[in-house]
Amino acid sequence: MTFLKPKRNMKIKSIYIIGLMVFLGVQLFGQSEKKLVREGNNRYEEGNFQEAEIEYRKALSEKPDYHKGKFNLGDAMYSQENYEESGKIYTELGEISKSPNVKSGSWYNLGNSLMQQQKYQESIEAYKKALRVNPDDQDAKYNLEYARQMLNEQQQQQQNQDQNQDEENKDQEQDQKDQEQQEDQNKDQQDQNQEQDQKDQKDQQQEQDQGDQQQPQQISNEDAQRMLDALKNDEKKTLQELQEQKAKAAKTKKSEIDW
């Protein structure tokens, strides 16, 4: 079994219409779209998927409800990795087709298209629909289990990513908290340093003021000479007063002597 290879060449029962003229007209009309589908199949087998798409679209322009042409168009889009477009085609066929083969094949190929888009939960549902129509489809069973496995791995990976993201967020929050705490400590240290600087400046100013008060006042030479002269004059005056007092005392004592 080739995994995720779309089912192809579905057999569709023809509808026969009674009436000669109508039968001939339908036969000629039917040969046109069938021929275009066969030409598209040839291009598809050659690997020319874009050319195959063109032929299938031509067939559908001849007969829009030609399910075989539409089914194979879905294959061409799938092989061009246009999984979204192929998924739309398979979904439409799965819903409207009355043929069990077309219906089950459409749901199966829809599951493959969804798998390629990593839409594992949706692909699981598509494979289940295919198995409801054809319970014996071993490819659908295999792909269903594979899709479940991939979904489990996807969910586990998502959980790991979420856990890693949570841890990363916690680390970022802790780093932010540590940074804020460090900034607060730095600010407190700066405030303390600033207060100490201000105190040191204040102490220095007080010491300077005290020094200015204790420092003797400076006088000029002229003031010093005047003070010296004043002291000399005071000494002369004092000496003169003492001499006068002695002379007066001497006179007083002499007059008191009894001859």
Features:
about 260 residues; mainly alpha; Serine Threonine Protein Phosphatase 5, Tetratricopeptide repeat; about 80% helix; disordered C terminus
Distance between the termini: 176 Å
User: How are helices and strands ordered from N to C?
Assistant: HHHHHHHH
Query: Could you say which overall geometry the principal axes of the C-alpha atoms support?
Result: rod-shaped
Portion in beta strands: under 5%
Please, how many helices?
8
Number of E-type strands: 0
CATH fold description of the domain at 20-157: Serine Threonine Protein Phosphatase 5, Tetratricopeptide repeat
| Helical coverage, percent range | over 70%
Radius of gyration: 59 Å
The CATH class of the domain at 20-157 is Mainly Alpha
Mean pLDDT: 82
Spans of at least 5 consecutive residues whose pLDDT stays below 50 are 8-29, 252-259
Describe this structure in words.
With 259 residues, the protein is mainly α. The protein has a domain at 20-157: Serine Threonine Protein Phosphatase 5, Tetratricopeptide repeat (Alpha Horseshoe). The protein contains eight helices and no strands. It has helices at residues 20-45, 49-62, 67-79, 83-96, 100-116, 120-133, 138-214, 221-255. Helix 2 (49-62) runs antiparallel to helix 3 and helix 3 (67-79) runs parallel beside helix 5. The chain is rod-shaped and about 180 Å long.
